[in-house]
Amino acid sequence: DGEEVGVMEKEHVDLPNDKEGREKRNTEPYHGATEMWDGREPYIKIGRMATLAEYRGRGIAKRLIEESLDWAKTHVAELSSTGKEKVDDIPQWRGLVLSQAQMSVQGWWGKMGFEVDEGLGVWWEGGIEHVGMWRRVRLES
């Protein structure tokens, strides 16, 4: 029907400044095509991941990400379906993964193989700056 999938204009909403006096804007990430994503390719989004302070530094978060992505690599057919009857125009998932990472842990996500997509911009969520980061995993043959 010609409808674009996953496209949203950047929205700027003025919010009170944060405690360092920085202006809070872009309360939603940009969802249109960028240099790293064509705006249509299916992807898995990893979000809202946290480890309790007393358990940090033990590799738990890394293990959760690795196990999740390992599972996804072997379940491509499940990830490429709507759960209903087969729809021929739904593209197959090709291993693209998005993390909407807090700026303070951007380096950690980088060590996990994710790259910042400048085209997604920076936005505030829950009073915390976020950035979009992509990684492509190699799928099982």
Question: Which SSEs are present, and which pair or pack?
Answer:
Layout: E1 44-46, H1 60-73, H2 76-79, E2 96-102, H3 106-111, E3 115-116, E4 122-125, E5 128-136
Parallel strand pairs: 1-2
Antiparallel strand pairs: 2-5, 3-5, 4-5
Describe the structure.
By secondary structure, the protein is of the alpha+beta class. Strands 1, 2, 3, 4 and 5 form a 5-stranded mixed β-sheet that branches. Helix content is 17%, strand content 18%. Strand 4 and strand 5 form a beta hairpin. The model is unreliable at 1-15 (pLDDT under 50).
- From the N-terminal CA to the C-terminal CA, the straight-line distance is 33 Å
Mean pLDDT: 80
Structural class, by secondary structure, is: alpha+beta
**Helix content estimate:** 10-25%
Overall outline? globular
Quickly count the helices: 3
- Largest sheet descriptor: 5 strands, mixed
**Which regions contain 5 or more consecutive residues with pLDDT less than 50?**
1-15
Q: What is the subunit arrangement here?
A: single chain
SSE order in H/E notation? EHHEHEEE
User: Strand share of the residues?
Assistant: 15-25%
Task: Indicate the radius of gyration in whole angstroms.
Answer: 17 Å
Work out the number of β strands. Answer: 5
Main traits of this protein?
single chain; 141 residues; alpha+beta; 5-stranded mixed β-sheet; 5 strands; 17% helix; disordered N terminus
Q: Can you describe this structure in just a few lines?
A:
Helix content is about 15%, strand content about 20%. The protein is built from three helices and five strands, in the order βααβαβββ.
